[in-house]
Specification:
alpha+beta; five-stranded antiparallel beta sheet; 7 strands; 62% helix
Length: 320
């Protein structure tokens, strides 16, 4: 049986021909995404703005979509419902209404009444309030987790390769995160802990693509010492193109199906990763590779530490 090939063998695409155009467009889009995020802010969910939390135990299994529809018909705002180990126990979170504490108590009473009436035998505990202060700390911790993940990854790449590769990886990750956050600011999709998890996933995926390309670049730097840097980067990108395209396509297909027919509660997670994989695939080619050129990586950049061989670079970066 003939194997399906999404990318032909021995491709010779001149990716670096469009590197300046791609970086200018990417820079403008990134600046725009940051500006829009600062201007409009994000539509934070209950995880970050606080609200009322109750725990309900049902006598019979309850489908989460049915429960969500009944809760949202109360008109108390968009609910966050989480299963606690099965279809009989759920944690329900509702936005905290404006006004005095009595308004929050009324929301909990209304929810409790609906559940015990429409689900005979159900038990609902007393409502707990998630304060704004706790939510602010949660948002700060989420942002700190993302920042530390990016910094740790850049340090690892720096140690594993050279400092130019670490800077390239950090710029690539910053581009991917800024674009994804900007998308959520424009669309006003809710940002909750699932989206934070999605951004951390995007960082890991984008890094994986970047490391694969950087590893091939490093191998070719040692192998083709007489090749100038631009053809060498094109060769490295073409050699890893099949792996990049196949991996991204399979992940995107799975996420597209999840967005189309998956439960609503994971839509934000799925669309964030979908967008991140698409952007990460692009940036691993048109951000991470051109950065090496601008930071002065040449075929002789790492030869001294390997074999001490004396080399003479030409003006175009090739070693003779």
């Amino acid at each position: 049986m003939k194997l399906l090939k999404l990318v032909p063998d021995n491709t010779n695409i001149d990716f670096m021909r469009w590197r300046n155009v791609a970086v200018v467009v990417s820079t403008l889009l990134t600046i725009g995404a940051i500006a829009i995020t600062l201007w409009r802010g994000l539509n934070f969910g209950i995880d970050f703005v606080g609200g009322q939390v109750v725990r309900a135990e049902f006598a019979q299994p309850v489908h989460i979509d049915d429960l969500r529809a009944r809760v949202e018909r109360l008109g108390d705002g968009e609910a966050s419902i989480q299963s606690l180990g099965g279809e009989k126990t759920y944690q329900i979170r509702l936005p905290k209404p404006a006004g005095p504490e009595a308004a929050a108590n009324q929301v909990v009473s209304q929810l409790r009444q609906m559940i015990v009436t429409q689900y005979p035998g159900a038990k609902v505990n007393a409502g707990d309030s998630v304060s704004g202060k706790v939510s602010e700390e949660l948002a700060a911790n989420g942002a700190m987790a993302i920042a530390l993940a990016m910094l740790g990854i850049a340090v690892y790449i720096w140690w594993r390769f050279e400092w130019q590769f670490g800077v390239g990886a950090l710029l690539t990750l910053a581009h991917d995160v800024a674009m994804t956050v900007g998308f959520f600011s424009i669309t006003r999709l809710q940002v909750d802990l699932n989206v934070v998890a999605a951004i951390l996933t995007i960082i890991g995926y984008s890094l994986n693509d970047t490391v694969v390309i950087y590893d091939r670049v490093r191998e070719n730097l040692r192998k083709y010492r007489k090749m100038s840097i631009l053809p060498l980067l094109n060769l490295s990108l073409n050699e890893t193109l099949a792996r990049t395209v196949v991996t991204s396509m399979t992940v995107l297909i799975a996420l597209a199906i999840l967005m189309a027919i998956g439960p609503q509660v994971v839509f934000g997670l799925a669309i964030a990763i979908f967008l991140g994989v698409f952007i990460g695939t692009y940036s691993s080619i048109y951000i991470s590779a051109p950065v090496l050129v601008w930071l002065g990586v040449k075929p002789d950049s790492f030869l001294k530490s390997n074999d001490g061989e004396k080399v003479v670079p030409r003006d175009d970066g090739a070693v003779v």
